[in-house]
């Protein structure tokens, strides 16, 4: 199997290493506007540098295309792969905005070519276990969910103006995994935001601290918290409480928590500090799912339509925060 990858920045280099380690991948071809960077990554992972993106998309060049380029390039790269009849994996988001996402969705659905959008939490063992526990009836009837996503340190200032805001950039992962684990849809959200750190968040019209209440279509209540400044470490968790029991994702030896109870020293491990190390097994499993999809033509584990639903919740949350009122997802849903 020959895989092409476009974009060899930090996330692209990490994905390249995961792809190169797959036994079914016989050749990995890299393309980047910065050819020196592509050569550096290729040397580290044992890949080859393609002449350009057009080379990757030429007939018979690759069996699958992985896109880890800048967000603005995602739509055209996805559609270029689809038009060439090549299965595509693309890091989230599909596009910088909802109209762009809808445009991609329409063409992808007409083409019949499989596109896998990279929401890696769907491949994390903890979230998978929680999803199965809910489906097996282990938790009983679901009553409430609590989700947390907190970075140990904020992104660089230059990134924030083009990030789309914390709900679209960061919490979109919470919104996707909430749908995937519960099997339900979000109907409305009331979100808050605050600036508790560097001024560059406020200067870009963004916030660095969040809280929200969401309601699912079956009445389940969801609370959400987030921060770009979590001094304890990188904290990503989900708690699902039902009529028979409660299960927690991310409550492991490296959870960045400190118990105030006497005699309790859990967790005792070194706290997580960033996303890649926390989710390395999930990223690797995600790439494995993509290569299996390429090999056998199976269904996408996370479609463009799935990605659109998560972004719509993020848009509703952002609108709610800015307008100071609850917002129904239907208010931001486009006509398809």
UniProtKB/TrEMBL annotation:
Q: What is this protein called?
A: Dehydrogenase
Identify its protein family: Belongs to the Gfo/Idh/MocA family.
Q: Name one GO molecular function term.
A: nucleotide binding
Q: Which Gene3D superfamilies match?
A: Dihydrodipicolinate Reductase, domain 2 (3.30.360.10), NAD(P)-binding Rossmann-like Domain (3.40.50.720)
The organism named in the record is Nocardiopsis gilva YIM 90087
Q: Which domain of life is it from?
A: Bacteria
Indicate the segments forming the Gfo/Idh/MocA-like oxidoreductase N-terminal domain, all copies: 1-119
Q: Which residues form the GFO/IDH/MocA-like oxidoreductase domain?
A: 127-247
User: Could you tell me the keywords of this UniProt record?
Assistant: Oxidoreductase
Q: Does the keyword NAD apply?
A: no
Family matches, as Pfam families: GFO_IDH_MocA (PF01408), GFO_IDH_MocA_C3 (PF22725)
């Amino acid at each position: 199997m020959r895989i092409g990858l476009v974009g060899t920045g930090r996330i692209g280099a990490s994905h390249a290493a995961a792809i190169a380690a797959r036994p079914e991948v016989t050749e990995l071809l890299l393309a980047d506007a910065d050819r020196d960077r592509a050569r550096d990554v290729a040397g580290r992972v044992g890949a080859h540098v393609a002449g350009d993106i057009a080379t990757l998309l030429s007939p018979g060049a690759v069996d699958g295309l992985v896109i880890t380029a800048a967000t603005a390039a995602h739509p055209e790269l996805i559609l270029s792969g689809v038009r060439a009849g090549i299965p595509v994996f693309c890091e989230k988001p599909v596009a910088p905005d909802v109209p762009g996402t809808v445009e991609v969705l329409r063409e992808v659905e007409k083409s019949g070519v499989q596109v896998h959008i990279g929401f890696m939490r769907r491949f994390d063992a903890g979230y998978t276990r929680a999803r199965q526990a809910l489906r097996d009836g282990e938790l009983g009837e679901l009553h409430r969910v609590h989700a947390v996503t907190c970075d140990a340190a904020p992104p660089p200032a230059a990134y924030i103006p083009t990030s789309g805001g914390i709900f679209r950039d960061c919490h979109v992962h919470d919104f996707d995994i909430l749908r995937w684990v519960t099997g339900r849809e979000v109907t409305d959200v009331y979100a808050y935001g605050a600036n508790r750190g560097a001024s560059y968040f406020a200067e870009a019209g963004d916030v660095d601290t969040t809280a929200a209440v969401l309601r699912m279509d079956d009445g389940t209540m969801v609370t959400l918290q987030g921060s770009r400044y979590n001094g304890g470490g990188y904290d990503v968790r989900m708690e699902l409480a039902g009529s028979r029991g409660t299960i927690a994702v991310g409550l492991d030896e490296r959870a960045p928590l400190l118990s105030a109870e006497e005699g309790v020293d859990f967790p005792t491990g070194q706290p997580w500090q960033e996303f890649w190390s926390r989710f390395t097994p999930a990223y690797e499993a995600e790439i494995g799912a993509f290569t299996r999809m390429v090999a056998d033509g199976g269904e996408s584990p996370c479609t463009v339509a799935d990605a659109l639903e998560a972004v719509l919740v993020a848009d509703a949350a952002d609108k709610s925060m800015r307008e100071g009122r609850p917002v129904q997802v239907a208010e931001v849903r486009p006509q398809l």
